[in-house]
Specification:
Layout: H1 2-18, H2 25-51, H3 58-73, H4 97-117, H5 125-141, H6 158-167, H7 172-175, H8 183-196, H9 201-213, H10 215-221, H11 227-241, H12 247-264, H13 269-281, H14 286-315, H15 328-331, H16 341-344, H17 361-364, H18 380-401, H19 407-426, H20 438-451, H21 454-489, H22 495-499, E1 513-516, E2 534-536, H23 538-544, E3 556-559, H24 561-566, E4 571-574, E5 578-581, E6 585-595, E7 602-614
Parallel strand pairs: 1-2, 1-4, 3-5
Antiparallel strand pairs: 4-7, 6-7
Helix pairs in contact: 1-2, 1-3, 2-3, 2-12, 2-14, 4-9, 4-21, 5-6, 8-9, 8-11, 8-20, 9-20, 9-21, 11-12, 11-13, 12-13, 12-14, 13-14, 13-19, 18-21, 19-20
Length: about 625
Amino acid sequence: MSAFLYLLLCAWTAAAVARRFAAERGLVAVTVFFAALLLPFHALGLLELMTGWPGASVGHAALLLLLAVLALRLVPAMPAGFSWPRGQREFLPWLTLAALTLPALTLAVFLLAGVMLAFGRPQGYEVMAYHLPLSVDLLQTRSLMGWDRNFPHTFPANASVLWAVLLDWLPERLVSSADLLLLVPLVMATYTLCRQADADRKASLYACCGLLGVPMVAFSSVELGADIGGMAFAALAMCFVLSSLRPPLAMALAGLCMGLAIGFKSLHLLSAMAVGLVACARGRTLAGALRNAAVFGTVAALAGGFWLLRNAIVLGNPLHPVGVPLIGKWMGWLPAPDFDLSLRQVTQLEWVSNTWQWLVYPWMETQHYGQNFKHSSGLGAFLATAIPGTAVALAAATVRDGPRLHRVRLSLLFAVLFIVAAWFLLGDRQPRYVLGALPLALPLLAWVVTQATGQWRRVFDITLAVCIVAMLGVFLSRQALQFGDRIVLSRQTARPAFYEYPPLLDALPAGSTILNTADRSWHYPLFGAALSNRVVSMPEARRMMGLPPSLSAPRGLTLAAAPLRAAGVTHVFVTGTSVTAGACLQLDNVAQLDRNPVNGMPLGSPRTLYAVRYLCP
């Protein structure tokens, strides 16, 4: 109930602030809502850094927000100083039935996907490995200092804070579809950028539908990860930079959005540099550029800096686990010992055989280790069709008209090229790491489509519509097959059946501590249905037993009594690992799942839960 009241307070705060604006109230409201939801937790995290008091709970966050709202009411309303750019007065314009058919179809597809998700449980490898475990750890400990010190658990965790608030209120089934809600600010930002780029309403809506049909976007939205939130707020930051609000207010809102984006994914520091440079260029004069940079940078640091400050104080490096370029060696900000940089250079081999194949990736969509359309790969037919024509048309228009008439579009193009170039140069080349460029690129396509007239416009519309429908079909068919397999036919609706672990795990006494020796994807299921178990992560188990750091589960492990006793371990979960008990330790098999719960066939690796008995005082 406290989480529900907290969300209501966030909504009321967003509405109160948005009413102070003459326009762009939707963008302001969604920005303030998420800022009101997340930033009180940052403040409580700062308090914990200073005092050591773990107080990051929903109730304390609500109290802080209430104090901020009361203070806001004492501040007189100031005019927003907004003048509408040409043709941007409506988010939902009057359009023909035919023009609204594709947006309606897109909405129906994602609503249906959300309904199917609500019959299952949260899923996704990184979601199971650390996003949701960080959420549960926050609910259990009220601390934002990190689940443990292993590097995946030290990333900025706005997404985990958001899921923690929802898990505190809603059933786990409903939370599994919560990432779909973050598509709302993403679509709002993309549509606004399209209109700012002088695209017409129909082309802008098509661009939004095309973005949602990109496989990496669609499949990310059905997992409780951080990609969608990061994309959405980075795009909102650019919306405010390009808006007609008074510069100080525009840059403050842009900085707020960018800080939130960095809190979802630190990779958006690259987006922050790109958007920050555009903000400086919007200043027109040196003084204006410095003013914009100061306001944008200061607010972004305040909104997203907690995670960097925490890592700097607790771990000695604000960008932990990666090293800080240029000054890292001087400042001691070096890569974490468990962060293998050599692996970062070869991750691209999942998608391409050599670096230069990235130049043709959108038209080949190669995938060497699995499916080419999933949360981490696949740009889809829409972008493959759009890229060549958009690049040629924009270049030709700039040469013909000069850059002055294309300031907004060139600003977007600069940001896109900056993000893509930085992604390429940094070396860890995974397709989803360039997602932040997509909402900034599609307004350029929408503008190109707008320039077409007559038969050419019809050709553009039909071609893009076919591409969008095709990619939505790929997404929905995959979700429907998974739903039909796991929910309709296999009836894996109960939590133990869905995650395929021994049911006794859900009946353990609250506070039982389980040492995970299996793959990291078992972290979240082991917390149990009531989320009352405590879990020692697999990388932490490796560290406790003196094994070299790695994100791979050990093949064999000898458990020592002393570190297990110090960590309060009561149970050990084993699958696919050979585990032996050391001196003064006994492992009792209390539950085992050795057959597939659907077809009764033997499992290759039984899932076994051992109770730990300490034999020595």
